Amino acid sequence: MSNLFNFIQNDFPMGPIECFVYLHRLVFKEIGGLKNKLRSPPWKKSKIVEIEQGLIQGRRYKLGKEFVDAYMGIPFGKAPVGELRYQLSFFKPLPAEPWKEVRNCTEFGPRCPQFELIFEKYPSIAEKSEDCLRLNVFAPSWDPASCGQVSSILKFYYLFEIINALCCKDVIVVTIQYRLGFYGFSCGEGITPNCGLWDQTLALKWVHQNIHAFNGDPTNITIFGQSAGAASADFLCLSPHSRNLFQRVITMGGSALCSFAQNDIEHVYTVCMDFAKFRGYNPSSGQPLVDFLRQLPASSLELGLTGKRVNKFGEIDLTPVYDGDFFPRPFDELRKEVPPKCFLSGITEHEGLLFVGARPNRKTPLHIEVEAAIERELQFHKVNNIDCVKKKLLQMYWREMEKYNKEKLERTCIKIVSDIYINNGVWLHTDTMTKLGHTVYQYCFKYFNPNGFGLLALLLPYKGATHGTGLPFIFKKGIVSNFYPNEDDLKMVETMTMYFTNFAKYGNPNGVSDDVPELWKPLIPENTLVYMSIDLNEIEMREFINDGRSLFWKELINADAANIALNCIDCKLVNTKDKFI
Length: 581
Prior knowledge:
Layout: E1 17-22, H1 25-31, E2 43-51, E3 54-63, E4 66-75, H2 85-88, E5 103-104, H3 118-121, E6 134-140, H4 144-147, E7 151-154, H5 160-165, E8 171-176, H6 181-185, H7 195-210, E9 216-226, H8 228-238, E10 248-252, H9 265-278, H10 289-295, H11 298-302, E11 311-312, E12 315-316, H12 331-335, E13 342-348, H13 352-357, H14 366-380, H15 386-398, H16 406-435, E14 439-445, H17 472-475, H18 487-506, E15 531-535, E16 538-542, H19 549-561
Parallel strand pairs: 1-9, 3-5, 7-8, 9-10, 10-13, 13-14, 14-15
Antiparallel strand pairs: 2-3, 3-4, 4-6, 6-8, 11-12, 15-16
């Protein structure tokens, strides 16, 4: 079997490899900087590879009878440290400088400074630094001609679990790190908005320039994100700076059309200004905001991510914004300009379960919080007659239900939270992109292991597939708890990695063989509510994702905007199994 990695001699007898990119904030910050304190299988030094900046050498792992090479901590952007901190912090990134010697790429680079969530603190295993613009490449070293086409570059943040779960399916995995929080999404005098998206774009350009060194195909890239990462993937589709750098998109539990994913630039500016004032900034001093923020130590900027100032129940204040540069025109206009792409978009069955279980304010009754969330969502959509629209929505959710039955009330509230923060934005994205002529596949992930929630189980009112619980079945590693897969879990890992890598390789989750359980049909403009239902013993195409509730939201909001009488809008929900409770 010939080796893919004869790259120093530029000997490429095989065809190029497609590319697949993962964009998810939690995973990026958690795993992108993992130190090698983690248990890791034995490895040897990889072959030396030549990229534009110079020569690199990483690790080589044995995977069955084959091998995978891992190159970690490769700089793709200049480090904003030392004197360069005052030139590069809060600005667009610049490409990394070249080096002369062979660079040791056997360790992950540091992650962007940030405040850890409670489940990330113990043990603290990842270093943090403003010098965080690094990426990692995991590439199979077997001959694709002998084992099928080698495809896809994935941008994730794991080590051996990714190698084991994904590279064995003939994909190259590339992972990137980008600026988060105040570093990546501040606004104000002298600050470049959307720095985090500029970072991601620079990383994608690096892939185009260098992936041939790993036998990759720069013309066949799939980007992939979950939650805020899914929104990032969608935003990258919109910008003319990034939208031509990839061909396929996988989004899990999010899109740029979710209300959590975007704010007005004035709102983000106010958040940044309030934070700076809290740290001692005097706007009347004449000092530009950017100069003040640069003087703060990294630890001070981390404090803005504790959740007390930036994150509220279901809301994120530091987000991408329409800035006239990365986004030269409003989002809805740019969406119509997206070049032809293939999309794979999914949700979990109970997206809002995590948000309700982990909500910071438990003193206020849940149904009161949820009704307030409905009002905020309607304000986001600039609804005029909020009271009337809210009443129609509550009639849909509360119908045929004893409102004061605590268990049923709680489950209904979770449905509302699921729809507000995730489901509506995800479905609106699939509906819109389908009607704009793109190829779209849609799914709902329903499988969960009741023993797989760890300490999170103490917060949840019940157990079910919720926000983020699908990730271990792609990565083969837990996010909020350890992942010790049983036989059923491993079956689901095989199912999900098969669908995702098929999509990355062929633009179709069914792949090119007949070994899929059922043909996964793409959406058509006349019906964007069909979906693939994915559970252990149920993998089948179904009608009416989320019982059609998101369509009802859309019709009500559109009717309000058009001044159509809301009593003309009927609730056309179909599923009557649980009577929407």
